[in-house]
């Protein structure tokens, strides 16, 4: 199961549920929106998640340290342009259709590839 960070538009949950068919949950639904990056990874691993999707560029800096402790976990940094939720969801689905996210255990993945 994948975790959507609190900074992603809520519409992505519906995109995954209706179109992509990969089980996801949101950090907000777990009341994890206030957790710092390392704390969020620890909570996600303990909660049975295999991957966090985020647009928080600070994860890039902290990921290498955090993933040393969780080599089976992946962080995906989404680099799509900031826009309103429905437009963001549409851009996400378009990028997904071109090249789906491929999490790599123990690694930070930047998606979509530029």
Counting H and I runs of at least 4 residues, what is the number of helices?
Answer: 4
User: Structural class given helices, strands, pairing?
Assistant: alpha/beta
How far from one another are the termini?
26 Å
Low-confidence spans: pLDDT under 50, at least 5 residues? none
Please provide a brief summary of the model.
The protein has 114 residues and is of the alpha/beta class.
Topology of this protein?
Layout: E1 2-4, H1 11-20, E2 24-26, H2 37-46, E3 51-54, H3 58-69, E4 74-78, H4 85-98, E5 108-111
Parallel strand pairs: 1-2, 1-3, 3-4, 4-5
Helix pairs in contact: 1-4
Please give a structural write-up:
The mean pLDDT is 95. This protein has one domain: Rossmann fold (3-Layer(aba) Sandwich), CATH 3.40.50. Helix content is 40%, strand content 17%. The chain has 114 residues and is an alpha/beta fold. α1 packs parallel to α4.
Task: Please tag this protein with its features.
114 residues; alpha/beta; Rossmann fold; five-stranded parallel β-sheet; 4 helices; 5 strands; 40% helix
